[in-house]
Design goal:
By secondary structure, this protein is mainly alpha-helical. The protein is built from 23 helices and no strands. Helix 5 crosses helix 8 and helix 9 packs antiparallel against helix 11. The longest helix is centred in the middle third of the chain and has 35 residues. It is globular and about 70 Å long.
């Protein structure tokens, strides 16, 4: 098996990069490191990897696993790189790592649980978070990275997709595409998630597959999809529905679900049309009335994320025109719900004199007031600030930004740098302790995305709301200063060693620096000192990802999934390489195309 993988990548690398006359010693070491599977059964190595899920790790020059090979020259080339530059040694390492991850995923899709996944089920269901829809999102970014080198040349594109290593990945992708197309065509739109609760972007079967199918048009385009979907001997044809048809079907499904869920105080009329504002209001109030969920995975914010992701794949159309109205109604309902829950929390805090005044709004999920990007305020704020929608968008953005700033001020830990998991931790004595998690789902990494959303919609931090931005300049701190500070915490403590997924892994934290770089390039250009520093940090995270992925991905519950496993690593490294390849001719546009799949919209 090792020989087969080695041969596949050697052939694939030569086809995509060209034959070079000599192979350096560092390249040989990298080959050996990436393709020889080390026995992790010894007690010392077990201590390295059995560290639990997430958590702060002191910044170290190299993960412990890298003691097996010398990568100092690669690190030095990263530290000398300018923004957008990908040194040859780094390109070689990332190419090997991303291709190896793609083939592992391809084999997993075609073969199921194997030794490569530690015998575990590679994914669960068809959703974006830990299911096959998320794997499809990652493969879109991998194929985009491969095909961008063809620069419109059909022959070169075909050669890249028919190489010895990539052929298995294409076959796996076609299988996923066919499954998702059939699932979406035959699923009942009345139950958007395929279960008892409404679907959202990360956890919904119906909406998850719709988002994955629409993402194919958005990321790859019609020409690339034509090459990928070309019928081959022994394979079924995979006809992908148009993005407009996908959006129209989803809107129809949401309409049916909203009409089937009457809400007290609202007129129950199944004949309400898509053009009627009443049914948009019913979406926010009725679909999530059972538990009043607003969080980004299972609640109203997740539905906003799904709608925005689908809207981004089409330019115009009657169905797409309904999206802003629904987003506005969902956003208003989220703020009303947060105000009610925040007032109840405030009464408890004041009656028991537990600590500082809580934010004006807070959202409870399963008994805890989470503040991070996965289940809490930071994630809700990100989608409300990105959503816009309606005439009240500006006022809504100011309100949400104020709540975000209040939450950040209250939830800061004893160091003043990171954030606690929930407000419960603060009021149970956690405010005097150090927060342990620096990752997308909990901690500074997730808050960075919310701060950037507030910056990009033009909000200004309130001096009365607290939260020091640490600008270090003779001016009031901006939301971008807050985001940079969260990025510094992620750089110092977020180079995780026990996961390569997006939720609580090194790849998810790496996307923080791509997002910061995108904003910095818009503010100061690509040649600024800040842009160069952020690009170098991005490359360090990408190298950490490919070096950890061969073994660490097996520790996740779903080893090949997007948010817990190898697909997250594949998406991140593919996006980094795409930016490097297209930066000279596309500039900031290449960065705008590379957001975290399943989260950034």
């Amino acid at each position: 098996m090792r020989v087969v993988f080695f041969f596949r990548f050697a052939v694939n690398f030569r086809l995509t990069e060209g034959v070079r006359p000599l192979v350096s010693v560092s390249e040989i070491l990298m080959f050996l490191f990436l393709f020889l599977e080390y026995d992790l059964k010894s007690s010392s190595q077990r201590r390295v990897y059995n560290l639990g899920c997430g958590g702060v790790r002191p910044r170290h020059p190299l993960p412990v696993i890298m003691d097996h090979g010398d990568t100092s020259s690669i690190r030095a080339s990263i530290d000398a790189a300018v923004a957008g530059q990908l040194p040859d040694e780094v390109r070689f390492a990332l190419t090997l790592g991303v291709n190896r991850a793609a083939i592992l995923i391809g084999d997993g899709v075609l073969l199921g649980p194997t030794r490569m996944t530690g015998g575990k089920p590679p994914w669960k269901g068809h959703d974006v978070y830990i299911g096959t829809a998320g794997i499809q999102l990652a493969l879109h970014r991998y194929f985009r990275m491969l095909l961008c080198t063809a620069d419109g040349n059909a022959a070169v594109a075909a050669a890249s997709l028919n190489s010895a290593g990539t052929r298995v990945v294409v076959s796996a992708y076609r299988r996923l595409l066919s499954e998702h197309t059939l699932l979406f065509a035959h699923a009942s739109p009345h139950v958007l998630g395929g279960g008892k609760e409404p679907a959202t972007l990360l956890c919904g079967g119906y909406l998850g597959t719709a988002v994955a199918l629409a993402d194919a048009w958005k990321v790859l385009g019609s020409e690339a999809l034509g090459v990928l979907c070309e019928r081959r001997d022994g394979e079924a044809d995979c006809a992908l529905p148009s993005a407009e048809a996908l959006v129209a079907a989803v809107i129809e499904g949401i309409h049916a679900a909203a009409m089937a869920a009457p809400h007290p105080g609202q007129r129950h009329d199944a004949a309400l049309s898509d053009d009627s504002p009443e049914w948009c209001e019913r979406v926010g109030a009725s679909l999530f009335a059972a538990r009043d969920d607003c969080e980004p995975l299972y609640g109203r914010a997740g539905l906003i994320a799904s709608l925005l992701a689908l809207q981004g794949s089409v330019a115009t159309g009657t169905a797409a025109a309904a999206v802003p109205r629904m987003v506005a109604c969902l956003s208003d309902e989220i703020l009303l719900s947060g105000g009610r829950q925040g007032a109840a929390l405030n009464d408890v805090i004041r009656s028991r004199s537990l600590g500082p005044q809580p934010p004006d709004a807070a959202w409870e999920w399963y008994g805890r007031y989470y503040v991070g990007a996965a289940h809490g305020t930071a994630g809700i704020a990100y989608y409300l600030l990105r959503g816009g929608g309606g005439d009240r968008a500006a006022a809504r953005n100011v309100t949400m930004a104020t709540i975000l700033q209040q939450t950040a001020a209250v939830a800061r830990d004893s160091t003043g740098l990171n954030f606690h998991t929930s407000l419960d931790d603060v009021y149970r004595g956690g405010g005097s302790r150090k927060a342990d998690l620096v990752q997308l789902c909990h901690g500074a990494a997730g808050f960075a995305f919310a701060f950037l959303a507030a910056h990009e919609c033009g909000c200004v931090p309130s001096a009365a709301a607290g939260a020091d931005g640490g600008s270090g300049k003779d001016r009031a701190p901006t939301w971008f200063d807050f985001a940079l500070k969260a990025g510094d915490v992620t750089w110092a403590h977020g180079r995780l060693r026990d996961s390569v997924g997006l939720c609580h892994g090194v790849a998810g934290n790496g996307y923080v620096f791509l997002a910061l770089l995108r904003s910095a390039a818009a503010n100061d250009g690509l040649t600024s000192e800040i842009a160069t520093r952020l690009w170098r940090r991005t490359l360090h995270f990408a190298l950490d990802t490919v070096l950890l992925a061969p073994t660490v991905h097996q520790q996740g519950d779903r080893p090949l999934s997007l948010y817990e496993g190898l697909a997250g690593a594949l998406a991140f490294v593919s996006d980094v390489m795409f930016v490097a390849q297209t930066w000279p001719r596309r500039g900031p546009e290449s960065l705008r195309a590379c957001g975290m799949p399943g989260f950034e919209v």
